[in-house]
Specification:
By secondary structure, the chain is of the alpha+beta class. It has helices spanning 2-15, 45-63, 65-72, 141-148, 159-174; strands spanning 26-31, 75-85, 94-104, 109-117, 122-133.
Length: 191
């Protein structure tokens, strides 16, 4: 329930904030509340993913993507993420999340989310990918870009995004094999 409250607060605040270019950094401020904590007294690792969702939603609202989604009746689908934790966030600590679109391909938009405390120290960095879907099919990212920011040049993929794509594909193809199939022998995977 608290995630929805945060989402409503962030969306309401975004209405009063300046519209952003598709390639701008969107900064969203949060505070660690008691329900964000794990048993060790710091923000739960799963909460970072939820905060990334809220931050990405503010980015969509401030860039015009959310308006296009409503007009076209598209929905957003998260396609994966990766998070690197460096420091902890404690009870009542304020922090910012810097969300930025770093690349897109035919289906996915790739985002970077940097968690920063108020002294400027990096707490964590996450990357995520999200796509839009109509009722029957995936929405081509170029269609979204053309609607929100016509003529916007493609953002070249940072090395870490290309590496993540390769690893992600490998994990998807090889993970989940049953223990009877998991041997030290090479298992051929066909595309």
């Amino acid at each position: 329930m608290n995630l929805y409250l945060r989402l409503i607060i962030v969306l309401a605040a975004s209405l009063r904030r300046v519209r952003l270019s598709y390639d701008a950094v969107c900064v969203t401020r949060f505070r660690v509340w008691p329900h964000d904590l794990d048993i060790f007294g710091h923000m739960n690792n799963g909460r970072y993913l939820q905060i990334m969702d809220v931050s990405r939603t503010e980015w969509m609202a401030r860039t015009g993507v959310l308006t296009a989604m409503i007009d076209q009746q598209w929905s957003a689908v998260l396609g994966g993420g990766l998070t690197r934790y460096r420091r902890t966030l404690k009870l009542m600590q304020s922090y910012d999340v810097h969300t930025q679109l770093v690349h897109w391909d035919k289906r996915w938009f790739y985002f970077e989310h940097t968690f920063v405390d108020l002294s400027g120290k990096k707490i964590a960095v996450g990357v995520s990918r999200a796509a839009l879907r109509s009722r029957s099919k995936w929405v081509n990212t170029q269609r979204v870009v053309d609607q929100v920011s016509p003529g916007a040049p493609l953002l070249p993929a940072p090395d870490y995004i290309r590496q993540w794509q390769d690893i992600d594909e490998s994990i998807f193809k090889q993970a989940g094999t049953s223990s009877s199939q998991a041997t030290n022998d090479f298992i051929e995977v066909t595309p």
